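question for whoever is on the cluster today: can someone run the full assembly for these? two chains, 726 residues total. i dont have access anymore since they changed the login thing
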Amino acid sequence: MIRSARWVDRIDLQRFRFWVQLTAFVLLVYGGYLALDLGSQLPIFSCGYNREGRAGVCYLLPLQHQLARPWTQLFSFAGIGLLTGFATFLLWFIVLNKGWCGFICPLGTLQDWLTAIRKRLGIRYSLYGERTFNRLSWVKFVLLALLLLIPLGIGGGFWSHDWGAPFCQICPGRVILPLFTGDPEQLTVDFSSVGTTLLTGGGMFIAGLFIAGSFFKKRFFCFFCPMSALHYLIAKPALLKLKKEGAKCTKCGNCFNVCDMEIRAIADDIERTEIMTDDCTLCLKCVAACPEPGALKVEFARINIFEATEDGFLKRMNQGAPRDGSKP
Amino acid sequence: MRPYWLPVVAAFSWSSAVVAEAAAPLRAESSPTPATAGTAPLPATQPLQDARRVGWREHATVAGGARSEHTALSTRAATLWLTDTPPQRDSSRSGYGGDSGKSHGEAQGQNQGGRPQGTGASMANDSGDRTPTKQVWLRQGGNPQTARPASGGEATLLLAPDGSASELAAESQEGPYRVRFPTPELGYYSVHFIRRSLEGGVLAVQIAKAEVPYSGMGHGAKIDPAVLAPKLDSRVPLEIVRERGADEGLFTRINYGDPITFQVLHNGQPVPEVQVTFTSGQGWSSTLPSGADGRATFSVIRDYYPDSWQLFDKRHRETFLATVRLTRPEAGEAQGAHYDTTRYTASLAGAYYPGVADYESYSNGLMLGVLGLLFSGSAIGWFRQRRTRPYQEVHFDD
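^ ran it for u. tokens below:
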């Protein structure tokens, strides 16, 4: 048991994550061809517009459709469907917490691949300043509020159904993910009304922003992701937890330096034990980069499954170096 | 599914395509280029060129503008047909149909949530049963735009998606003829209204048919093709059957430019060389003889030209009408009298809508995508340039 725990703590997280992400991407984007269907309450951007290949549907799509039902229905029998849908989403989410973002989300994986291309090309990445970071952190909550309120307004008769599923219309996942199955149908602007023109036109523009932004900035879109905001709001009962023991932290800053989301609190905050913030994607890079034994750890149902160790840190830092100590 | 190459190559621009076409006179002599994807390779014996050669004719009953031909026939005026569009929708029609004059998303007959209610569907019937129901109404007249509600007392034959048959009594003996039927299963429900009357020594048999889809609340769920297949019954002597496309589902819509193929069956056998007439929602019609296998293929023309972009509604629903007449020397007794000849008139009505190529643009989409890419790329480049500008010492001139 101890040996296996020690083996896990020494794992090459980067390689492990790459393969998990690749497998998840293939399953979610092409699984439909193998009749794989995980339902329509997934806590990730497995895009429903990828009609042929999808193995499941992002929960935000049915959520917006359900909220757009007429209020007379929504607050009667249709409300049951909404609640059961949310319960299913919660059950999916509760297992991996935000680990869905860091390991499974196809759109997150795409961003990581764009980052990998940039690294290969030797182009340096961009960072937000602290002030910009704090300002941008709110955007996803605003988007989440709009995502909920606009469909509710449609159901109440305030807006036309042309504004239906507003977030999906501007989501880069709708435009980009179907391309992986050879479906370019979402590369259009729908001129049938003012609402659809603005939303689909905005969607195309944001898709362009997404590609360039993700190329230069790690996990560019995750700062604005309303799914991430929704995750954070319901993260309390989740089984997978990122924990920190402030007493063991030396504030070396490794965790902050490797964090794709530039979360400063991971290094600065030595008070809280549950250190996961709203922007965190639970990629666990911080744990892998931490040299202080037990300072950062990952628990699943209160069982320690991966923690920072000096041994693991040294192994990962020396990855690729010759064993005899000579310079590579 | 749309062909991928089509809108990419011929990228659509609203201003240049739709508005220009709206300003142009209605195309009476040519049918639009048909979309070929999404339909089965049918052994059509009447190619689309025939439709162009025969041409589309506008009926004089259509209001407004100079009319080139007058083809109104008394027999056409007597044509009976069934539709799932309520009469109220048609009674307010003018110009470009029931949805004209409404701004986006404000089509007539919307519920509180703004979704169009174009058909007589409901979730509960009068007895409080939660089984969804549909209704169809009887119309009279060969032009869908000017046809009037018809009355009658005959029972209607209903063929459910599972092939079971039942008879439906009219909802009301007075006023417009209407029947309501439950739709417990997904699929097409075929409704047949048959009226027999003796006119001199001729037995006139009028058969009106409607195929009403029930798609439930599912979104794109895969469905057994068997429930989509046309249902036949020996009690229907003459029938027009619409061919299904290869990828057709319950959510598949017939769009402008699509080919539409009908097969004429008399007692279950194909009828060759019979004149089949296809009439659009605005009253444009084309007549073709059926081929050796009883099939005739038409191209659905676009006849929806709102005056401005603001009036365009992508859910605009038009009703087409396919009719066929067949006279046979079939003798017999009816209503206590002898007849030597039987004259059948069959009709099939359905709905069609604007195609996505009418309102979606790849060129503008790609342009905006590239713009977003360039904008963010340039912004990042500019920001970096500003941040890496070499230090310059400031000199004060004392």
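summary bc i know u wont read the tokens: Residues 130 and 156 of chain B are 23 Å apart (CA to CA). Helices of chain B lie at 5-9, 14-23, 48-54, 74-77, 87-91, 225-228, 362-387.
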